[in-house]
Amino acid sequence: MKKSNNKLRPVFHITGGDGWINDPNGLVVFNGRYHVFFQYNPYGTSFGAAHWGHAASVDLKHWESLPVALAPGDDGDADGCFSGSAIAHGGKLWLLYTGFTRNEGGDTERQVQCLAESVDGVNFKKCGVVIGSEQLPQEYAPNDFRDPKVWRHGDKFYCVTAARKIGGGGRLLMFSSSDLTSWEFVGDLFGKDCRGKMTECPDYRDGDGLLFMSEIAPPPDGNTHLNSSTTRWFYGALDHTTGVFRVADEGICDYGFDFYAPQSFADRPVMLAWMNMWGRNNPSSKYGFAGMMTVPRRIEKVDGKLVQSPIVGSREVVRKIVDDTFKDNVKTGVVDITATGLKECEILMRKKGGAYTKLSLVGGEWVFDRSRSGEPIVGDEKDPDSLANIRRMPKLDRDKTHIIIVLDEFSIEIFIDWNALSSTVYPPLDADELCLSVKADACEYIRSEIV
Ligand code: FRU
């Protein structure tokens, strides 16, 4: 790849080196550090030659970039080391990932599940294919079988993978193993097709019964699930003997333009996702990179629903009671607004002249508008909201409204009353005005800088 001399990057979000990144993979705590791997193409700023990039942190706030963990080219993974997961066991770190072989393309492509091991958590040795097409029941397509998420339950290992029923749609399949090496099929989690074309990147949290499922080409539901791929959460009960998952509650993970393939740490209630979307242009390519992760998010179950809050290292620098309007300067940092009896609200972010990103309360819902944000982002979506560069999020009916906005170079993540909305934006690099206008019984504004 042509190296870019201009190395502009987000300040505190994970990106790879030069190149392209997508899905987070293998989130795990090993030897006292949080490890995040991710899909990485070091050769260009578009998808290709899937490697596993690697970053680690002791506090989930400051990340050290580590050498590439997996590169394609071996048995089962000739053309890509696709997404997967990690587990610490017997003093080693194990990666269970999808090996991709292109063959002649289409139906001849093969996706199999491979294993790799490491003693130091940095250098990995491949162990080869452990769930091949032979372990996949015949009614599922061997060219759409990927993204294993592994966990331990009792004295066995289990994994859930994305799959596709031949002549049907996306499924989630469960396999079990007593040693991570030989696996057998257990069952089909939902026993029916997903709503979109194909599932991807499942993540299951055994302790909480929380399942994340990403899905290609979902049917829109009103003004939600408009992105070309979406992610749903489910709380429920998984039967480890049959593989059947009974859903108690479900919802959308994020209302924004750019959020996909979330993964979580098994033993920490922390999740992060790819903050980008398939089928869009990437204005950051000119800086030599495309794609980044969301900030790590604390996840909890409140009244049966998934609630996310950002984990960022920040120090308060401005605190103010806002009567009506207020102006500040913030390019990267965290803004925290608490309003009681909120009636009207408009927030312009990363503003410079006529360029800004707007969050406003319109007709009882939050409207996020990136039509004037800066460099245009054009995607595959053709619905009116997408063409207008708009995303909407419900406003909960409560006396106190709590808004947290995390701003970094090229992204805005918004958390309001337990819902999240994440999007990339490409404003002028020096755009830093924030204008808040609000009508409420009381409103407090706090800005923190990232430390
Ligand atoms: C999801 C996905 C996965 C696949 C990976 C390849 O974004 O399509 O299903 O393993 O990306 O990079």
Record the strand order, biggest sheet: 22-33-24-29-30-31
| Number of helices, counting only DSSP H or I runs of 4 residues or more | 1
Total strand segments = 33
- How much of the polypeptide forms β-strand, as a percent range? over 45%
Find the structural class using helix and strand composition.
mainly beta
Shape descriptor: globular
Radius of gyration, CA atoms, in whole angstroms: 22 Å
Q: Hetero groups bound?
A: beta-D-fructofuranose
N-C termini distance: 33 Å
Would you spell out the secondary-structure blueprint of this structure?
Blueprint: E1 19-30, E2 33-41, E3 51-57, E4 64-70, E5 80-89, E6 92-101, E7 110-118, E8 125-131, E9 140-153, E10 156-165, E11 170-177, E12 183-188, E13 198-205, E14 210-216, E15 229-238, E16 245-252, E17 260-264, E18 270-274, E19 289-290, E20 297-302, E21 305-310, E22 314-321, E23 325-329, E24 333-340, E25 344-352, E26 355-362, E27 365-369, H1 384-387, E28 390-394, E29 400-408, E30 411-416, E31 419-424, E32 433-439, E33 442-450
Bound molecules: beta-D-fructofuranose.
Describe the structure.
This protein has a six-stranded antiparallel beta sheet, with no helix packed on it. Strands 23-32-25-26-27-28 form a six-stranded antiparallel beta sheet. 46% of the residues are buried. The chain has one helix spanning 384-387, and strands at 19-30, 33-41, 51-57, 64-70, 80-89, 92-101, 110-118, 125-131, 140-153, 156-165, 170-177, 183-188, 198-205, 210-216, 229-238, 245-252, 260-264, 270-274, 289-290, 297-302, 305-310, 314-321, 325-329, 333-340, 344-352, 355-362, 365-369, 390-394, 400-408, 411-416, 419-424, 433-439, 442-450. A hairpin with a 2-residue loop joins strand 20 (297-302) and strand 21. 1% of the residues lie in helices and 56% in strands. The model has no long low-confidence stretch (mean pLDDT 97). It is mostly beta strands. The structure holds beta-D-fructofuranose. Beta-D-fructofuranose (FRU) is lined by residues 22-23, 39, 50, 82-83, 98, 146-147, 200-201, 260-261.
